[in-house]
Amino acid sequence: MFSIPIICGSTRRDRQSIKVARFVLARLQQRPNIKTELIDLLECNFPIMEERLHRRDDPPPGLKEFAEKIGAADSLIIVTPEYNNGYPGVLKNALDYLLPEYERKPIGIVTVSAGGFGGINCLAQLRLVCLGMGAVPIPENLSVSRVQDTFKDDGSYDHAYDKRADGFLDEVLWFTEAIAARKAKDQTK
């Protein structure tokens, strides 16, 4: 069984990305042999990072649990909106608290925008950050344009995203399985 938590990377009022995060969670829960959960940064409420977790003896509340979930995960999915051509500072802050937990970990990125480009600028930046953390951002992504029109407050959505989400999740699982197999092989040496 693979552990693939989903991080919702926004704490903004009236955020639209939470609807997409819940959609991805529901799609991933339909897959066999997957353990997943939604890690909502709004609930974490981490203060601005002063030092990485592994260098602290006084971590903020909830940070050790966050680190344990990320460290135990076989891969991650990050759902983030694009704000002003980038991703939210709260996401960068949460990611920066950790480092060894990301080593060679596949990361699937879902971007959300109110406009027509689906967060491609945010996607490019976040991929670079993932590489800098030692993680493996997968080539496939799921971009949601005009989120307010495609994912409604009542839970309804444009079902064209079913097929797109399935393709994205297929790739997340491919990289998860491939890297897990390699890690297992390395441990037997």
Word description of this protein:
With 189 residues, the protein is an alpha/beta fold. The chain has one domain: Flavodoxin domain (Rossmann fold). It contains 7 helices and 7 strands. The chain has a 5-stranded parallel beta sheet, with helices on both faces. A two-stranded parallel sheet has the order 1-3. The longest helix has 28 residues. It is globular and about 50 Å long. The two termini are 23 Å apart. 36% of the residues are buried.
Helix content: 40-55%
Strand content: 15-25%
The biggest sheet amounts to:
5 strands, parallel
CATH top level class name: Alpha Beta
The low-confidence runs, each spanning 5 or more residues with pLDDT under 50, are none
Amino-to-carboxy terminus distance: 23 Å
Order of helices and strands: EEHEEHHEHEHEHH
Number of helices: 7
Helices and strands in order:
Layout: E1 2-3, E2 6-8, H1 17-29, E3 34-35, E4 38-40, H2 41-44, H3 63-72, E5 76-81, H4 89-96, E6 106-112, H5 120-132, E7 136-144, H6 147-150, H7 160-187
Parallel strand pairs: 1-3, 2-4, 2-5, 5-6, 6-7
